[in-house]
Amino acid sequence: MIRRSTTTSAFLRTGRGLLLLLVWLAAAGAVRAQAVHSLGAPSERLDLAGEWRFAIDSLDRGGAQRWFARDLADKITLPGSMTSNGKGDEIRVNTPWTGQIVDSSWFFKPEYAAYRRPGDIKIPFWLQPVKYYKGAAWYQKTIDIPAAWAGRPIELYLERAHWETTVWLDDQPLGTQNSLGTAHVVMLGRGATPGRHRLTVRVDNRVKDFNVGQNSHSISDHTQGNWNGLVGQLYLAARPVVYVADAQLFPNIQRKQVVVRLRLRNTTGKAVAATLGLQATLRAPGAAALPALTQKVRLNPDTTALEITYPMGAQPQLWSEFTPNVYQLALTLSAGKSQPETQQVAFGMREFGVRGTQFTINGQPTFLRGTLECASFPKTGYPPTDVAAWQRIFAICKSYGLNHLRFHSWCPPEAAFAAADQAGMYLQIECSSWANQGATVGDGLPLDAYLYAESRRMVRAYGNHPSFCMMTYGNEPAGKQHIPYLTKFLNYWKATDARRLYTVASGWPIVADDNYNVTPDPRIQAWGQGLKSIINGQPPRSDYDWRATTAKWQHPTVSHEIGQWCVYPDFKEIAKYDGVLKAKNFEIFRDRLAASHLAGLADSFLLASGKLQVLCYKADIEAALRTPGFGGFQLLGLYDFPGQGTALVGVLSPFWEDKGYVTGPEYRRFCSPTVPLARFPKMVYLNSETLTVPVEIAHFGAAPLASVTPTWIIEDAQGQRLFSGTLPARAIVLGNGQVLGEIRQSLGSVARARQLRLRVAVGAFENSWDFFVYPSAQPAASKQILVTQRLDKQALDKLASGGSVLLTAAKGSISAAAGGNVAMGFSSIFWNTAWTSGQAPTTLGILCNPRHPALQGFPTAYHSNWQWWDAMSHASPIRLEAVAPGLQPIVRVIDDWVTAQSLGLIFECRVGRGKLLFSAIDLVGDAATRPEARQLRTSLEQYMASPRFQPATPVAPQRIAGLFK
Which ranges carry the Glycoside hydrolase family 2 immunoglobulin-like beta-sandwich domain (predicted)? Predict the structure, then answer.
């Protein structure tokens, strides 16, 4: 059924229908000067890729001197940027970067002096481009318009310009455009006659009329970089004299139809009769096309708006993460003898909605398992515009159990949407802005109007893609009036286009009109929380969730930027930065590690801190999955964030490659559509206790599971089974918070200290948790060993007589110079120390040799696990250089890569004739309530009583005494 915009159909007779169409037509008019494609590329094109003439206009003289009217002298290759062509300025101390620098110490600290030398600049803030330029640059090409294009509309298509473009054909100006997220499309006008012409494009990448925010990932040097250039498809296209200018498709899965809203262009100057054909085909091998729909229409001069209802048959194939069925609608418009043109529109039959506090896909509950995409592309410095590159990214995301990406303060190119459609990824798109740190919304500045214009362009260009499920203005806004402004913006889009869900912003605020909210409240470490967080301030457990946090909201909650757990730099990555962005920051950190004589430990630091990082992410993700009615999470992130002082928060590198300590299948055990969960009240037990653990499941798969019998196994670190059992068989519906039963197991037969693992399997889905069991009764300590917390006369006499002393420092007793000012906690670093003003902890866990005889009674791997929480919470690390140069500890603490100090928790040395084992962990205080401390002390004492306790490094007693306040 076809409805002309001038009819009084039932749709238009309703107030809401009339409002929607009027808003749609108004939006169409608002962006006509900056048209964007909702359709496939036109068939008749003249490719403009290749060599262009070029000139830098750093003094802004080009306009006044009419550079568009003469041939430019330099050359450049497009698509590309100035940086990818080696154009621009050398990096200097005063390079005018785009992006906030919170820690400015690089500019003045002596330790960075070597990196401020002209010609050899190395910055720690973000990846460093080989060249940098901010200002106007001119791109020019001679074009030949074919004779067959005479009298036809011709458009210039610049897929991704960064960012403001002004275009001339010969000496005729064609206008200025400034979209950051959509193509710049320019109609060439009457001057586009057949024959040779000079096409000139001026590109300006400065913040000018509107400020989206210096840290916005659409422009910031923190991520993709503030580049100048033209990338993606660059072409001229001839359109027929009548053509489909825009098509917006609105699927309705209940009615099994799609409503098609069209704008048809008629450039003949008079009303004409035309024929419009529509036919949908499922993009699948051997799929038959649906019946064609053909209709005669009369086109007004200029633009005609139509609404058409296209039936999708008795069983349309739905789109979701499990069934990414993509349809293609062919639209053919012809009039008289004019050449018809067929346009292809991709769409999916899906409904992304809300039921209570959870998301739904086609009426079924779903849970967002997401990460941020922050526009980091080190090879090119700009986002890829080919589908294959995005297919690779989404395939990797899926391999780690994710179904969702949030594009933080930027909008990706068309290829990303096409690839996400095929992969079944749910995308949250943002309108190119992070209005904070120097920018605001709602205060009447030009950005307020720009966000409406940019969002309209984005929806027009990409709104048909089924993967485009969510939209917001952008990230963490500021402004005195930002709440009323963003609420109005939200409600505008809710009324205009119901194909997706909307929230006012990522991070904050939360308003009642939100379809969903994205908030940092539900996560295990808050910004600025330091050592008071769940993971650092409370003994380890897994029985908490976010119900108390989310109870006050009536719509779905997505936890904002969870994780942010750091890992040590992988210096092997440096060689991979062979494109326009270089890891000079890594070179600085590598130098710092070498200066501390620790270069040989770089790989060990990476692997050990990586294992701790994964443990922290597992805790964060499982807390979200345990929360009944929760909406989902967005990691920051699956891959490293290269800016903001370098935030190495990914289990993947910026190249989307793993780092060697966790694989996709391992990650999916706790991050996938179906995850068994265990609510441990604690992670450390005595063998006199009974393990009591409730078990549940989060299941957001394609369909409920028929009757399954959950099984569980408790095994040791070598995989030897100690206990096993089953839980009652049951069917699993879609949702989380589904109780499977309770595991109760006496630990009395665990006679010695053991690291154990609980594995729970529900059909093909398995998850596991490490926990620790220690004997409730410890053996008597050797009377030959003096245990003390002070290097007093008794301890010195013992050492002088050739005896053995276990010196266990009370928490808070170590001097600042010796390490007492190092902010140590259990978790790895949150985000980084540069942008959190040194938020604790500033360390990355422990590194040890698990086969060292001192640790034989305290089972451990080479990295932190839950049994080390007590030690890290009752100690200050020791700066080992304060004891003896090159001293090798039994247990090392991995320091922040910026300071790269040699830190230890446990070391041994000779003091005079005696033997000293120094524990920076308090093993005495509150020992009755600290089974880990008791067990570690026993292990150390047994080592000291054995013949293997033969420390070699001599240390003067004054050095040991100097460690204390």
Answer: 242-350
